[in-house]
Amino acid sequence: MEPVTGSDGKDRLLALLTSSHQTLVYNIGTGQVEQEISGMDMKAVWNDRQAGQVYYTSQSSLKRFDPSAPSQSAETLATGVGTANAITKGKDGKIYLLTSGGVLVKYNPGNGKVERQKLDIPAQPIPINAILYGPDGKIWMGGYLAGGHAAYDPITGKTTRHPGLDQTESMVVKGKSIYLGIYPKGRFYVYDSEKPWDAASGNPRKLGAIEGQGRSFAMLDVPGHDLVVFGMIPEYGKLGGALVTYHSAKDQLVSHGAVVPSQAIASLVMADSLVLGGTTISGGLGIRPAAREAVIFGWNVRENKKEFEVVPVPGAAAVTCMIQGPDGNVWGIAGGVLFIFDTGKREVIASRRLFEVPPLTSHVWRGATMVLHPSGDVYGTGNDQLFRIDGKTHDFTVLAKGASLLAMDKDGHLYFRKARELWRYTIEK
After folding, report:
1. Per-residue pLDDT of the chain (429 residues; tens, 9 = 90+)
2. PANTHER family in the record, alphabetically (predicted)?
3. How far apart are CA 251 and CA 259, in angstroms?
4. CATH number for the domain whose boundaries are 4-118
């Protein structure tokens, strides 16, 4: 962002602290942080340099302040305008805002009059961020950054859009319901697939949010229990992802905290009456890992306690997927290595490198995924490719490039993403 100029003629930078949602006002000349501002929308601001004023939105209001003066002196110019994605001043002297809701707002500084115009903006494709085979036989998808959902019907070939929720990181099915982990602020929703999607009327219904947690990439239905388990990544600048359970009969969302200190949870699987969790050493963005390698832990859902903790692949930064394998053991991938874990012995009994992974420079929250196919082979995505692992010999075969995420329907067809596109891979019987 370009520097902004106050009435004193000095340049300042506005910097957003994502962990606390505070905006710092930094004086370039003195090198000092002069003040902190709460609630400023930092997607767009406009600086009237001649007047030494900055226009911005906060809590749906258009505001103006002098960056050389205390933020408490900011003027509220108009309310109910929304969140600005862009702000500028027109040749007519009016302030123009384009909001995140697709509304063009015009503010006249002369008389304080506000005009609003809803724009008919054609929808644009966005990257797919989550894929799930739903209880309705459709392939459900969540969109990246802009949020929203869509469901593809393999029978009719039609896709239906379902707006109303933010970015979904993961989904899981329990019965006829779809549970959704929503970013930001660690929120959870449940959708009753036997009723129409209507987010405004409570379907999906919000279950709650977990304080200090940002997103959930790991979800698990616990068969035979009135229970769904979520593994979480913490908020920006924090370490330690919580293990969260939801009891539908009690309508109770419970956080059990970071069961592995300084690590977050990237994958979950059920094995021998225990929930196995695979961790990542990464926390939220903006903080370095404190741990050196990811672990597997066993969680007793009856007693709500951790039974054990082991390192499946020495030096691996994350265990991004685990499934029940064709031999009855747990199969997982960590650091590009396939490992087979015997839950009874609580040890890795076999491993094989599938592909190389680059050194960790920022974070790893998810990576490889796998499903057990009815043929007895394991199919997966990872390292930007679709692959097959022979269920008996463990031979590794690359099937397609550019693939990530994965879901399998009742007929054994595989669905994966290529950026903004949903692809299907059909396995001949």
Report:
1. 679 999 999 999 999 876 567 899 999 999 999 999 988 988 899 999 999 999 999 999 999 999 999 888 899 999 999 999 999 999 999 999 999 888 999 999 999 999 999 999 888 889 999 999 999 999 999 999 888 999 999 999 999 999 999 999 999 999 999 999 999 999 999 999 999 999 999 999 999 999 999 999 999 999 989 999 999 999 999 999 999 999 999 999 999 999 999 999 999 999 989 999 999 999 999 899 999 999 999 999 999 999 999 999 999 999 999 999 999 999 999 999 999 999 999 999 999 999 999 999 999 999 999 999 999 999 999 999 999 999 999 999 999 999 999 999 999 999 999 989 999 999 987
2. VIRGINIAMYCIN B LYASE
3. 23
4. 2.130.10.10
CATH of 128-425, one of 3.30.1050.10, 3.30.70.240, 3.50.50.60, 2.130.10.10: 2.130.10.10
Calpha distance 271→246 (Å, rounded): 19
Q: How many C-beta atoms surround the C-beta of residue 265 within 10 A? A: 30
State how far the Cα of 277 lies from the Cα of 275, in Å rounded to an integer. 6
Domain residue spans of the chain: 4-118, 128-425
| Rounded CA separation 265/295 (Å) | 10
